[in-house]
Amino acid sequence: xxxxxSRSTSNSVESVSSDGATLTIERMTEAHLPEVMRIERAVFMxxxxxxxxxxxxxxxxxxxxxxxxxxxxxxxAGMWLVVDEAHITNVAVLPDYRGRNFAKxxxxxxxxxxxxxxxxxxxxxVRISNTPAQRLYEKFGFRSVATRAKYYDNVxxxxxxxxxxxETPEYxxxxxxxxxxxxxxxxx
Length: 188
Hints:
By secondary structure, this protein is an alpha+beta fold. It is built from six helices and eight strands. A hairpin with a 2-residue loop joins strand 4 (72-82) and strand 5. Helix 4 packs antiparallel against helix 6 (169-185).
């Protein structure tokens, strides 16, 4: 079962030195919400409310991560773990910090945790106009399967993407290659 308890895995802190900066990925807590809401308002309109995040942080099936650059949160991502599926709910990077592989690092960590917890597939929705995000998800093996009409703000369609075989040794190798790519790019 994907949502089996392995909280110690998701509480782990990962630090990486890059370009003289320290990157840390850690589990989101309520103490992080002021910085997370700053990112939410900068990236999404109208975006999620603080109460929506608080509710998810109390949900045992939800897991959210923050990425800190020299101690300041510049990105976050989250997912729900339901039965054997991981549903990526949010990925956000402050605009001034895009292009530095922060989203890639967060997605890699989420999918690694999902594998550790026994998930066999993952899904997400992405704006039909957000081709950079779609390309990033495709690098992780997500494929477009359908659209949800007017999903975003009752205006823009969402592309529904799925990834299957998350539990396979081959996908584990794929994640290892992505991790090596991230480390080799040296951009953070």
